[in-house]
Amino acid sequence: MEKKDINVLEQMQNMTIDLNSKVMLEKAEKDGVETMYKRKLGYKVQCGFGLQGVCCRNCGMGPCRISAKTPRGLCGADEHTIVGRNFARMVAAGTAAHSDHARDITHTLALTCPGGDYQVKEPQKLIEFAKFMDVDPEGKDIYELAHEVAEVCLMEFGKPFGVSKLLKRAPKVRQELWNKLGIEPRAIDREIATVMHSTHIGCTADLDSLIHMSMRCSMADGWAGSMIGTMISDILFGTPKPVHTEANLNVLAGNNVNIILHGHEPTLSEMIVAASELPEMQELAKEVGADGITLSGICCTGNELTMRHGVKIAGDFHQQELAIITGAVEAMIVDVQCIFPALPELSSHYHTKFITTSPKARITGATHMEFHEDTAMEDAKTIVREAIMNFKNRDASKVLVPDLKSEGMVGYAEEAIVGQLNNVVNTQIDEMDTLKPLVDVLASGVIRGVVGVVGCNNAKTPSNYNHLTIIKELIKNDFLVVTTGCGASAACKNGLMLKENAPKYAGKGLATVCELVDIPPVIHLGSCVDNSRILNVCSLVANACDMDISDLPVAGCAPEWMSEKAVAIGTYVVSSGIDTFLGVMPPVTGSSRAVELLCGGLKDQVGACFYVNEDPVELAKMIMDDIESKRPAFETLY
Ligand code: CUV
Ligand code: SF4
Fold this sequence. Notes:
By secondary structure, this protein is of the alpha/beta class.
């Protein structure tokens, strides 16, 4: 290699701390294929207007960009208006993504029938949820009930009157506060539409109002869309229980047909799991010369599958291209969200079939095999067969699977977290006495607090670096970490979800608790929609202690966030009273007032706000100081 190439490779390798990824980047260079890491090198400087959020394209007179020379857009919008509108639109897009996912899951519940492709796996949970949603289960067949609940949930998307039914899970004081502030979300679609309308040229120009409607919209994600998505996924596919898994690209090793599932909705991936387990598919795999079939996941589909089936985690958001570059992947099957449009072209350099399945996410160059819930199993079988038949095209000379993987325990739903602390898995969780052990370890200070470290990878920081630095700092200091999304993948890839590793990484208090109750120091809580599980657990604990969520020694953290969904999540977490710490600055710095409000002013309204620091060690310290400052009051109250 020439000197120049070595520099390029080194520069790319410095953009990730994952050792497997570094190996794959070297292979990418050898194979002459491009990845995000290479493209990032082409972006020496990113657009300063965009970074600060002061570019407006909301009408055809624009784009307008705020600078010293042009302090207003053509319509007169100033930097506060433009930043506020852009922020609100990010929240609306994120809310739309999560909620539309939930809508599909809910439609699937409406399709359930005895002996059908989709069935009710958790009848008890359905009955409890039905009651909660004011549907009387009395004398109803379970499928009749399922269909009725599906319809009531679908109404949450477009009902003409009233606010989200799920808000009543929150502590009373919190509900009253939301009511007083006017941020109780009405129908989910309506909140999204309201933001899109109000950010159209010539509507809302007031920053406070824009942030206010962003909060209400985000609440339609956390306390409606995502919460419905999680609840119905459990009802359809089972409440996750602790299960063993493996993570990182080495899960692709061996002579198996490798099928990677990437995207988000368990309706597709669950069916692929079921199809690939069929004897006919296993036999077909043998016929083509493979030893079997290995399913693995990337992004949140990976999280959904690993926590319900122990399906292996191939990698996180930043490894989607690297997985294909191993040359060992027969098919990558995707549905929606976080899928690089780069993948079809990249796949064409290998034998990998890149298969899109959703009309919501078609990508030029992909093999499109549309998946329909009403012909789910047939569709899944066709797709799996396609993958198996591609095994013969694998070119051994192009295969390089890197050496590393880690093991871990995943799949801690609310029931498992609370139940395990009570030493009974899967107990009913709505009684105070089952919550007592959790509250006790918090109140006594053996565990200082609980931090949700969640979200994506972002090319603005070396992949996984912020996640791991922050998680390690926190557990070393006796803060329990719960995690979802690509943060969960990062933790699992690095052995932090192994119970045996608690003494190595956790402080004394946390390590003792881990040993006593048999949990890892970092708890896998699921996918991004499963952040609603965090809201749930916080509500349960707050209710048990007769407190507000903002009184609890808890915090949220998104160290490497990148998606609009993450902006919606952060905003609903703050609106729920949980301080949220970001490792990447959102595009709001062009408005001093937006920064003041988001990173301070909101505290007076909802009892929480955002904090940003791009140094992960400092961010971890900020989180711990914040929680410690809440402890004295928490201890007295309790
Ligand atoms: Ni939905 S949103 S990169 S997969 S966590 Fe992973 Fe999570 Fe962010 Fe996307
Ligand atoms: Fe410019 Fe106003 Fe149009 Fe935005 S809405 S592009 S600021 S004229």
